[in-house]
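User: Please fill in residues for this 1271-position structure.
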């Protein structure tokens, strides 16, 4: 069974609104809606502060605020999209103490199985009085929701029929007691674009059959508008004074038109005419009835001219917001009014302009260009000229609108077609306001420079259309490179997971460092004064010179000080240990003593604060001083050592481990042991590493020592307790490790505060860590003198050294090899996070006034001081491409470069064709410097890329194959294209065409098998052989396999091919020699968007209905078949699957789960597909069932129903729940109930005896914690 978990949540913003509490402070909040989540942010002078968030089980379409004033509560409506639309009522509460709460108070289902889905208008409107909401989700009907006038919550709902089937937009234009008017924009049965209004009666539960006299029907010029990407929209313009009674703006076409509403006098006149007409229609005189109907028809189609018009010179309008507008409901006027009417409008290429409706002298429209930002999906005015821009195609932004240009001072504010007349005053506020007559053209102001300043940006990966998983530096730490963005914000995004490091200082001049130790003046001091740096040949002493500990310098060689001519094995401050007599307990006092261990002995030193020098106490303590006349000690060297507050543990060659203590100024041998290998070797066991760090930092001595060996790959823990004459007794050992341990730590990950309060430590945090020479770390839980819970963590390929560091009073371990990882305790388990720095050899804790809570790192040629600011952080690096939208990406290791297929769209005014061009661009895989670009011909587009290596004339040669299609507007399906083989020259890394052939169709996908190119061309799979010499390459067609539909998915594994078409399902082929043969096929209707092979027999994929599916190849007596094993509603379209995982993870020896795949969606989500073994699949399936039942009884929503596979018509009766998949994010909610015994018991026991879980809560916790570590 497969577990689906989220690595990076969706980042595309769907909608946003601003809401305000009616308290004394007037607290303001920004509400941001993403695909499946709503977040509330407090608007503060320093920026946005996240307050609360809630997950929504559905695809959020839009959000609206209920405009009812409360001092402590805000009400928000959330509309989710098909296939099972809902209206969710959210209540946000702000308490006087500063605490906030967010909860869903009502889930109103809008789903109707037999209704026709609305093609254009999926929206919810809330009238300005906050009394009703209107939802458009199905054609021919509206859902009217009556809201509680005092609380703003749900009261009742009913459906109304609407004769305008093809709705494009709706807007409230007036609000009276129990009567409301809706402006409606739609296509009529003659495909004419029509604007009209209808009255909505709450008492009669219907829309008025007759058109509202407030806005008579108006035919709009359809050629001005386009509905291909964005439908036109209506915006109500409130009344300002008695000279203007409000109107309707129609946006989204070549012209912005303002139609005013009927004044009170005209309205009363129209009402009287309507009554006379209705009376005439009811007359018994047939002639009078005919005359009344004729007058009604004449009046209905009487052409009404726009009050004001202005040309929109840019692309489709995708977002708009009121600017500095104060809307109020005026009960006496029975309509809305405001002090000024300004709107911020954005087109799909992020070009922003302000539209001003001037009514001081007539009615005129003024359009002022402001500048360019990300392509918006939503715009929300916050305060003080600050606007929030939410985006799907780029990073969301906080923008400040300036009164003067802030950038691009040499270019026009926005590009405007030459046919459109603009003015360029020195100050936009000085635009002359000329009197506007009927249907007057407005003024377009286009200055020089941009008036938009980005205050803050929010990372967005959406839409991810392609991605690769690479390890460019062979460090074992993968990174993802995605094709993201679009329109004017195309980009490549580089995603890595790791700890965040902020560099403070660095020093050069010392290379090949293998250990670092900081020293303090006194043992119990907090600040460090010296740094000892050891290489394999010598030791360097560095001293902080100033009082702040900011500058450090090298201390010259001092004959009575440290030994610097040899490498140092260990060095540390140490306490002074004294006893009154032999049987008296030891007394430990603070001291300035330091012990240095070198290969040929030990040195005791004392710090002189007056001279700021370390001075030796006595001579070097060589090994023979501990012999007691035994010749077996002579000639031995120290190979490893460790020091704690009162003990020194040294390992000698030939397998001898010695424990020393300091009495006065003398080193005293306490006990020792000679280790031998287990049979059949039975020889001396050479020691590779030792550690004697006490797990309890408040203790001055250790009770256990861990020792590792070169040849046996074992770690043994020996006890220091018992009689002094007893040798070091082994209490436990590890199993044989996969490689030799090179570094050891016996470390407690509990903080000092947690150690003082045992109730905060739920389980032991003492771990044995072994850094292995193969670049991995073995970890064991040490509890009750036993080693359990073995895990292997990959750090790289070089031997791993480990170093303890306390970061912000948090105990951590730095594991350094070919890359560096920080190990720490979080979420009740040991975790690790890669450090975003390369080539770090060793690390050490450092604390001075200038560098508090810092670490010092050694690279191959320098020392680096800095701080770790975030342990677990996703690093997203953006490589902007501007108007080049990346569509396909491949990595060529031999070129050390990424090849990217890009499409560039040149913006055009609405109604004019956009010009596109396409290219293949080459980027360095480390710096992302652009190396080369190859443009294809006009009318062509690069649709597929594939990197492969094949043997040409006996020489392995790397190529990138590009599929190119020629698009003709007159063709339904491309009939011409090319297949191009690309090479690079060695010196300039310039892309060149090795060979090119013409094909009949569009190349939708490419792969390779055994050096042969496999291409999906329209509805065929074609195999090409690559032949010739290195300088004269050719491609020849070998075989072809035809299908019924277009093939858009093509994946190879070995000699098997996975083929998918977007209309039906998937097929499995096999390439034997130069022939393709069909292995198996699914005959269902899945509409797949992409698929991948998990192994030789398993297939995973996603379809256009937002589902995931699993297939497995089965063999029966007659034939092979593809049987569906899983179906799961994800709620997003998957564009790419990639084998592997981003985060390096620990591999538990008996672990039940393994990460298999990454998947990428159109809204920026990165998910993980995790393989679960059969036993735990059953346990977690039962847990998911019980947890779903528990939450359904508690909150009234069903997880099983949400994850059940769906299509456009909703859920199928035959698939009531998901199959073959588990929701990892949902399962992890179990961990929140561990402290709630009542809830935990309900979940574990289920509703009956058969539903009771067969494993304990502790076992479930361990499995879920391991699952959490996978994403």
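Assistant: Residues filled in for all 1271 positions:
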């Amino acid at each position: 069974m497969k577990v689906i978990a989220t690595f990076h949540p969706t980042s595309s913003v769907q909608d946003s609104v601003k809401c305000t509490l009616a308290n004394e402070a007037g607290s303001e909040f920004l509400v941001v809606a993403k695909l499946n989540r709503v977040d509330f942010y407090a608007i503060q002078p320093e920026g946005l502060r996240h307050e609360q968030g809630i997950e929504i089980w559905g695809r959020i379409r839009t959000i609206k605020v209920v405009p009812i004033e409360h001092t402590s509560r805000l009400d928000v409506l959330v509309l989710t999209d098909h296939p099972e639309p809902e209206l969710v009522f959210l209540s946000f509460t702000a308490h006087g103490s500063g605490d906030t709460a967010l909860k869903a108070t009502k889930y109103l289902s809008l789903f109707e199985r037999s209704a026709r889905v609305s093609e254009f208008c999926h929206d919810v409107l809330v009238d300005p009085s906050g009394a009703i909401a209107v939802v458009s989700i199905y054609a021919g009907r509206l859902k009217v929701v009556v809201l509680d006038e005092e609380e703003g919550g749900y009261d009742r709902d009913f459906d109304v029929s609407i004769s305008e089937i093809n709705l494009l937009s709706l807007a409230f234009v007036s609000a009276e007691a129990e009567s409301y008017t809706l402006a409606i924009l739609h296509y009529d049965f003659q495909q004419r674009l029509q604007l009209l209004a209808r009255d909505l009666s709450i008492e009669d539960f219907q829309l008025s059959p007759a058109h509202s006299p407030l806005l008579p029907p108006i035919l709009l010029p359809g050629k001005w508008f386009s509905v291909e990407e964005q439908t036109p929209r209506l915006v109500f313009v409130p009344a300002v004074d008695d000279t203007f009674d409000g109107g309707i703006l129609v946006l989204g076409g070549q012209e912005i038109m303002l139609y005013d509403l009927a004044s009170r006098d005209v309205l009363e006149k129209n009402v009287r005419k309507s009554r006379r007409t209705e009376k005439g229609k009811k007359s018994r005189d047939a002639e009078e009835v005919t005359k009344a109907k004729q007058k009604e028809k004449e009046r209905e189609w009487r052409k009404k001219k726009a009050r004001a018009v202005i040309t929109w010179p840019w692309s489709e309008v995708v977002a708009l917001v009121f600017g500095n507008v104060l809307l109020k409901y005026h009960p006496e006027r029975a309509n809305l009014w405001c002090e000024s009417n300004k709107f911020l409008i954005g087109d799909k290429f992020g070009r922003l302009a302000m539209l001003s409706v001037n009514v001081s002298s007539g009615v005129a429209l003024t359009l002022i260009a402001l500048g360019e930002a990300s392509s918006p999906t939503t715009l929300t005015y916050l305060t003080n000229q600050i606007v929030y821009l939410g985006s799907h195609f780029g990073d969301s932004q906080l923008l400040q609108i300036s009164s003067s240009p802030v950038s691009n001072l040499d270019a026009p504010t926005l590009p405007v077609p030459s046919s459109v007349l603009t003015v360029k005053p020195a100050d936009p506020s000085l635009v002359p306001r000329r009197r506007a007559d009927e249907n007057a053209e407005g003024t377009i102001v286009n200055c020089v420079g941009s008036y938009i300043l980005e205050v803050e940006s929010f990372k967005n990966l959406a839409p991810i259309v392609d991605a690769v998983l690479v390890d460019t530096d062979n460090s074992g730490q993968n990174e993802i490179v995605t094709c993201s963005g679009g329109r004017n914000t195309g980009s490549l995004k580089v995603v890595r997971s790791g700890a965040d490091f902020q560099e403070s200082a660095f020093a050069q001049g010392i290379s090949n460092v293998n250990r670092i130790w900081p020293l303090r003046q006194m043992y119990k001091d907090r600040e460090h004064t010296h740094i000892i740096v050891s290489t394999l040949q010598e030791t360097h002493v560095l001293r902080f010179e100033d009082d702040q500990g900011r500058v450090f310098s090298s201390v010259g060689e001092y004959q009575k000080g440290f030994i610097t001519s040899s490498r140092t094995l260990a060095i540390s401050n140490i306490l002074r240990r004294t006893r009154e007599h032999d049987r008296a307990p030891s007394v430990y006092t603070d001291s300035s003593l330091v012990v240095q261990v070198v290969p040929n002995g030990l040195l005791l030193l004392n710090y002189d604060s007056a001279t700021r020098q370390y001075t030796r106490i006595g001579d070097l303590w060589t090994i023979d001083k501990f012999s007691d006349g035994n010749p077996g000690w002579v000639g031995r060297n120290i190979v490893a050592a460790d020091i704690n507050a009162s003990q020194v543990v040294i390992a000698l060659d030939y397998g001898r481990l010695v424990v020393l203590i300091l009495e006065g100024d003398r080193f005293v041998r306490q006990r020792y042991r000679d280790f031998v290998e287990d049979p059949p070797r039975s020889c001396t066991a050479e020691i590779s590493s030792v550690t004697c760090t006490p797990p309890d930092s408040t203790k001055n001595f250790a009770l256990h020592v861990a020792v590792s060996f070169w040849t046996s790959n074992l770690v043994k823990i020996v006890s220091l307790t018992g009689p002094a004459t007893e040798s070091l007794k082994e209490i436990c050992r590890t199993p044989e490790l996969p490689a030799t341990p090179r570094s050891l730590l016996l470390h407690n990950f509990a903080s000092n505060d947690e150690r003082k309060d045992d109730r905060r430590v739920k389980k032991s945090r003492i771990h044995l860590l072994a850094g292995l020479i193969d670049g991995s770390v073995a970890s064991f839980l040490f509890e009750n003198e036993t080693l359990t819970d073995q895990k292997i963590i990959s750090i790289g390929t070089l031997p791993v050294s480990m170093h303890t560091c306390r970061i912000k009073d948090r105990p951590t371990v730095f594991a350094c090899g070919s890359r560096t990882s920080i190990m720490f305790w979080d979420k009740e388990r040991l975790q690790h996070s890669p450090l975003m720095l390369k080539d770090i050899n060793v690390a050490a804790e450092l604390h001075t006034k200038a560098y508090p809570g810092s670490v010092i790192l050694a690279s191959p040629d320098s020392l680096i001081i800095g701080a770790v600011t975030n342990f677990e952080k996703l690093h997203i690096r953006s490589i902007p491409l501007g108007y080049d939208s990346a569509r396909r990406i491949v990595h060529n290791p031999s070129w050390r470069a990424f090849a990217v297929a890009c499409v560039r769209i040149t913006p055009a005014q609405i109604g004019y064709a956009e010009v596109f061009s396409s290219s293949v661009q080459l980027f360095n895989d480390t710096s992302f410097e652009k190396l080369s670009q190859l443009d294809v011909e006009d009318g062509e587009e690069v649709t597929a890329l594939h990197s492969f290596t094949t043997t040409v004339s006996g020489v392995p040669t790397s190529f990138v194959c590009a599929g190119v299609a020629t698009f003709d507007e007159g063709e339904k399906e491309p009939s011409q294209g090319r297949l191009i083989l690309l090479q690079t020259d060695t010196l300039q890394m310039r892309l060149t065409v090795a060979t090119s052939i013409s094909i009949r169709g569009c190349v939708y996908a490419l792969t390779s098998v055994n050096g042969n190119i496999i291409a999906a061309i329209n509805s065929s799979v074609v195999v090409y052989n690559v032949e010739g010499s290195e300088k004269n390459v050719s491609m020849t067609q070998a075989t072809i396999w035809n299908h019924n539909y277009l093939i858009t998915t093509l994946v190879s594994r070995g000699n098997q091919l996975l083929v998918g078409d977007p209309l039906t399902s998937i097929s499995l082929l096999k390439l034997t020699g130069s022939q393709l043969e069909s292995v198996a096929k699914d005959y269902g209707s899945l509409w797949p968007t992409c698929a991948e092979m998990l192994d030789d027999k398993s297939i995973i994929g996603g379809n256009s209905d937002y589902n995931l599916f699993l297939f497995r190849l089965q063999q029966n007596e007659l034939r092979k078949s593809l049987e569906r094993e899983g179906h799961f509603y994800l709620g997003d379209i998957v564009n790419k699957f990639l084998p592997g995982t981003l985060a390096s993870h620990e591999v538990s020896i008996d672990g039940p789960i393994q990460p298999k795949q990454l998947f990428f969606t159109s809204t920026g989500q990165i998910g993980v597909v995790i393989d679960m073994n059969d036993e735990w699949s059953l346990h977690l399936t039962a847990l998911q069932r019980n947890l779903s039942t528990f939450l359904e009884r508690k909150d009234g929503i069903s997880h099983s129903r949400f994850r059940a596979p769906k299509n456009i018509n909703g859920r199928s009766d035959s698939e009531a729940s998901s199959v073959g998949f588990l929701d990892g994010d949902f399962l992890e909610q179990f961990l929140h109930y561990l402290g709630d015994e009542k809830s935990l018991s309900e979940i574990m026991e289920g509703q009956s005896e058969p539903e009771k879980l067969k494993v304990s809560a502790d076992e479930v916790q361990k499995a879920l914690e391991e699952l959490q570590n996978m994403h």
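For context: The two ends are 17 Å apart (CA to CA).
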